[in-house]
Design goal:
The complex is a heterodimer of chains A (110) and B (113).
Chain A: E1 4-7, E2 10-14, E3 19-25, E4 31-37, E5 43-50, E6 55-58, E7 61-66, E8 71-76, E9 85-92, E10 99-100, E11 104-109
Parallel strand pairs in A: 2-11
Antiparallel strand pairs in A: 1-3, 3-8, 4-5, 4-9, 6-7, 7-8, 9-10, 9-11
Chain B: E1 4-7, E2 10-13, E3 19-25, E4 31-38, E5 42-49, E6 56-57, E7 64-66, E8 76-78, E9 87-94, E10 103-104, E11 108-112
Parallel strand pairs in B: 2-11
Antiparallel strand pairs in B: 1-3, 3-8, 4-5, 4-9, 5-6, 7-8, 9-10, 9-11
Classes of the chains: A mainly beta (110), B mainly beta (113).
């Protein structure tokens, strides 16, 4: 069963706009991570937010975490065509390994 | 360049054949993982290893086996391939199992016919 579920499944925006992706999960977590995957390539780690953190920034990325709602959001500001990719949230619960959602496909139109 | 190497990059395999997907990392990471990625299902954990000499079952282990004889290598074996094992397979590693990011290989695209 999927621990994390991203919303929306697909998102298309214009270059320069902001992109927001959401992730909901089911059980308590140690941390939540966001990954990016370009078509046909492996996943690349973007950011990790721990369960006791509420917000984290990295360049144009802003991640929030609400453990009471079991949800997280990834905001990409001032999107570029090169941001076109699939974005996955992954949760770490202390068991086994990271559990990934099914991803959000982001298309940034130049 | 440090990282994870997977081989082969793609393979067409006849059903019933045995196949080993190779994975090697040079980052001295303790933990390693195998995931499969299918359209619309995200990544699902097949097997994992917290440290050399230990392995564990993931979400979808049936039909797959792994070994972790040393820190660097984590091969995944399909004993008798079936068409439902057609997928993209990703190997990943992390310094430790907890609170660290995972590094992924480029994937092996496997088609079982």
């Amino acid at each position: 069963s999927q621990q994390g579920e991203e919303d929306p499944q697909a998102l298309s925006i214009q270059e320069g706009e902001n992109a927001t992706m959401n992730c909901s999960y089911k059980t308590s977590i140690n941390n939540l991570q966001w990954y990016r995957q370009n078509s046909g390539r492996g996943l690349v780690h973007l950011i990790l937010i721990r369960s006791n953190e509420r917000e984290k920034h990295s360049g144009r990325l802003r991640v929030t975490l609400d453990t009471s709602k079991k949800s997280s959001s990834l905001l990409i500001t001032a999107s570029r065509a090169a941001d076109t990719a699939s974005y996955f949230c992954a949760t770490e619960t202390g068991r086994r390994a990271l559990t990934f959602g099914s991803g959000t496909r982001l298309q940034v139109q130049p | 360049i440090a990282g994870i190497t997977q081989a082969p990059t793609s393979q067409i395999l006849a059903a019933g054949r045995r196949m080993t997907l190779r994975c090697t990392q040079d980052m001295r990471h303790n933990a390693m993982y195998w995931y499969r990625q299918d359209l619309g299902l995200g990544l699902r954990l097949i097997h994992y290893s917290n440290t050399a000499g230990t392995t564990g079952k993931g979400e979808v282990p049936d039909g797959y086996s792994v070994s972790r004889a040393n820190t660097d290598d984590f091969p995944l074996t399909l004993a008798s391939a079936v068409p439902s094992q057609t997928s993209v397979y990703f190997c990943a590693s992390s310094k430790d199992r907890l609170n660290t990011e995972a590094f992924f290989g480029q994937g092996t695209r496997l088609t079982v016919v």
